[in-house]
Amino acid sequence: MSTIDLHADHPTFAAALAAYGLPALRRDAVTTLQVNVGKVCNQACHHCHVDAGPARTERMERATVDRLLAVLDASPSVQVVDITGGAPELNPEFRALVGAVRARARRVQVRCNLTVLFQPGMEDLPEFYRDHGVELVCSLPCYSEENVDRQRGHGVFERSIRALQRLNAIGYGMPDSGLALDLVYNPVGPSLPPPQEVLQARYKEELRRSFGIEFGRLFTITNMPIKRFADMLTRTSALAAYMGLLVNHFNPATVDGLMCRSLLSVGWDGTLYDCDFNQMLELPLGASRATVWTIASCDDIAGAAIATGGHCYGCTAGAGSSCGGALGVG
Predict the structure, then answer these.
(1) Helix, strand, coil distribution of the chain in percent, nearest 5
(2) Residue 309: phi, psi to the nearest 5?
(3) Does 326 map to a domain?
(4) Cβ contacts of residue 213 below 8 Å, gap of 6+?
(5) Side by side, which strands form the sheet with 272-273?
(6) Could you tell me if residue 8 is inside a domain?
């Protein structure tokens, strides 16, 4: 896999912080526990930083789920459990995990690729989501069939639209339903996302007019130069130019809002990381390895150093980027 270590022509991320008089990144209290339950997916998207796909076998096991829940019980600061993958729904422990977290009165957010709704055994998935009050964050990198299928595979757009219509039909994304349905946009190529509010308005107009689809918010997320996307950049000789784009658009105003300050990422095997991107690079938590078995509570890591690398420019370029979209700074 391609590396994202910066060469001499780019400053390290730590050096960029220092150049603006900013201190090294440290953690605040953990309010979001992001759990990657495995790399198995029914899709193999070109931009995927997880390198997920149908041939992957990594899955979180029941013993890890149980230990994760014990840590959650001891971590009152955690408000949201954000479940991701792969397609997280394909993990046999997925539904039990959702039910257990909701029983603990914590919010559950699931990152859904939409097409998983049409996999065998997933016929009742929309109703399961609704009955458990799950908040959905769904991938739809464009409102154009050509762009979506180019990034995610033939026929993905059509199935995604049908999935959104089915979710709308049971209340998701509809005004005053209380069922959150948000969408995620990733640029198709090596560019920064456009302004989030402007693109959200365009998505709403196009999806409503063409398909009668309603949704809440649109999150614009910068493609990280790691894993499958980095490989594509390397094959097209675009990695250096893309890194230059990120570095040249470094925005110090984004640093206070970086998700790694309040999010803890849990790998499928229980290893802890500062963010989902560090997890995919196997960059240990605060530059030292820890797991759900070596901490008693998320409070144990409050104030700890955050491990950084060249990919961190992706979260701090332009308006900033996080799993919750742009950071809202110009």
Answers:
(1) 40, 15, 45
(2) -160, -175
(3) no
(4) 161, 164, 165, 168, 173, 207
(5) 218-220, 181-185, 135-139, 107-112, 80-84, 32-36, 263-266, 272-273
(6) no
- Predicted TM-score (pTM) of this structure: 0.92
- Strand pairing class (263-266; 272-273): antiparallel
Q: Is residue 71 part of a domain?
A: yes
Q: Name residue 327's amino acid.
A: L
| 70 assigned to some structural domain | yes
| Phi, psi dihedral angles at 235 (to 5 degrees) | -60, -30
215-226 pLDDT tens trace: 999 999 998 888
Residue 145 domain boundaries: 13-316
- DSSP strand pairing (107-112 vs 272-273): unpaired
173 pLDDT more than 80: yes
Tens-digit pLDDT profile for residues 96-109: 999 999 999 999 99
Residue 139 pairs with which residues in a beta bridge? 184
Residue among 285, 266, 309, 226 at smallest CA distance from 68: 266
| 3-class secondary structure per residue, 97-159 | HHHHHHHCCCEEEEEECCHHHHCCCCCCHHHHHHHCCCEEEEECCCCCHHHHHHHHCCCHHHH
Domains: count for the chain: 1
Give the domain CATH number at 287: 3.20.20.70
Q: Quote the tokens at residue 164.
A: 């959104």
Task: Say if residues 277 and 306 touch (Cβ distance below 8 Å).
Answer: no
